[in-house]
């Protein structure tokens, strides 16, 4: 006899599927040149990616199917969609800076690194079981947030000099290469997966989230890019500190 599960147990998978649908819409909008709208969809996907895991934990609705759906949604929303956004931004930059014709293929070949490297990162995350307290390599939503920030900056260049630097094609290309390296590097990076929700054990996570939200509301794309840079620098510092502690333990 088949047991009918309560509908609430399907809620995490429903959120994941909404994430997937919005990531697909973001890709479509990016190809039509509506980069701000595409970036907004990806931002919503980042929020949904947190809440599908949160609801799965609260409802104890974990499943192998949900795990696979989560990876597929991440691949679309945080790799294919950002790749489409970056390709469009590079094309715009190439036109503005009057790139020679033979360099134009870079505007759609280099962004391919984003879904390819993200797929490797997601596959590795899916088979490893030791990433609860920290991530190994930069998470794909973090990678996606940097390109979302650029799309928002492109739509609202509040600081002219900074905007010129961040939107320069060479800067975007460098960002793609550096981010690809960070996703595959054996660096330990901060994880925002909460085992407990008490203030004392998560004070820095809550402060980071509150500060990040405030900066995004205040500065929009610039605020999001600042949060991205701070996360990377803080994670590198944590990784070096943990490596030093591990070396000290082996000395005894």
Features:
252 residues, mainly alpha, Four Helix Bundle (Hemerythrin (Met), subunit A), 10 helices, globular
Tally of strands:
2
Alpha carbon gap, first and last residue: 59 Å
Proportion of strand residues: under 5%
Backbone shape: globular
Query: Helix content range of the residues, please?
Result: over 70%
Number of domains: 1
- For the record, the CATH architecture stands as Up-down Bundle
- CATH overall fold name: Four Helix Bundle (Hemerythrin (Met), subunit A)
Radius of gyration: 19 Å
Contiguous low-pLDDT stretches (5 residues minimum) are: none
Mean pLDDT: 87
Strand order of the largest sheet: 1-2
Our count of helices gives 10
The sequence of SSEs as H and E is HHHHHEHHHEHH
Describe the protein.
The protein has 252 residues and is mainly alpha-helical. It has 10 helices and 2 strands. The chain has helices at 11-31, 35-59, 64-96, 106-109, 113-127, 140-155, 160-166, 169-184, 199-219, 221-251; strands at residues 134-136, 188-190. Helix 1 runs antiparallel to helix 2 (35-59).
How do you describe this structure in short?
This protein has ten helices and two strands; from the N terminus they run αααααβαααβαα. With 252 residues, the chain is an all-alpha fold.
Write the topology of this structure.
Blueprint (H helix, E strand, L loop, with lengths): L10 H21 L3 H25 L4 H33 L9 H4 L3 H15 L6 E3 L3 H16 L4 H7 L2 H16 L3 E3 L8 H21 L1 H31 L1
Antiparallel strand pairs: 1-2
Helix pairs in contact: 1-2, 1-3, 2-3, 2-6, 3-5, 3-6, 5-8, 6-10, 9-10
């Amino acid at each position: 006899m088949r047991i009918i599960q309560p509908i609430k147990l399907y809620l995490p998978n429903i959120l994941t599927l909404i994430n997937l649908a919005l990531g697909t819409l973001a890709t479509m909008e990016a190809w039509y040149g509506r980069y701000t709208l595409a970036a907004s969809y990806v931002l919503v996907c980042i929020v949904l990616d947190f809440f599908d895991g949160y609801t799965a934990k609260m409802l104890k609705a974990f499943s192998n199917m949900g795990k696979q759906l989560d990876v597929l949604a991440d691949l679309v929303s945080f790799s294919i969609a950002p790749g489409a956004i970056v390709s469009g931004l590079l094309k715009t930059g190439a036109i503005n800076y009057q790139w020679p014709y033979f360099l134009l293929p870079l505007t759609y070949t280099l962004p391919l690194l984003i879904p390819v490297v993200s797929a490797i990162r997601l596959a590795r995350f899916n088979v490893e079981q030791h990433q609860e307290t920290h991530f190994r390599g930069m998470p794909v939503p973090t990678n996606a947030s940097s390109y979302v920030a650029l799309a928002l900056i492109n739509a609202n260049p509040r600081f002219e000099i900074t905007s010129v630097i961040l939107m320069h094609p060479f800067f975007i290309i460098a960002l793609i290469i550096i981010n690809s390296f960070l996703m595959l590097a054996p660096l330990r990076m901060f994880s925002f997966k909460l085992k407990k929700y008490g203030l004392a054990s998560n004070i820095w996570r809550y402060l980071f989230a509150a500060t990040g939200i405030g900066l995004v509301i205040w500065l929009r794309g610039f605020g999001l890019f600042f949060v991205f840079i701070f996360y990377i620098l803080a994670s590198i510092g944590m990784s070096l500190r943990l490596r030093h502690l591990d070396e000290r333990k082996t000395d005894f």
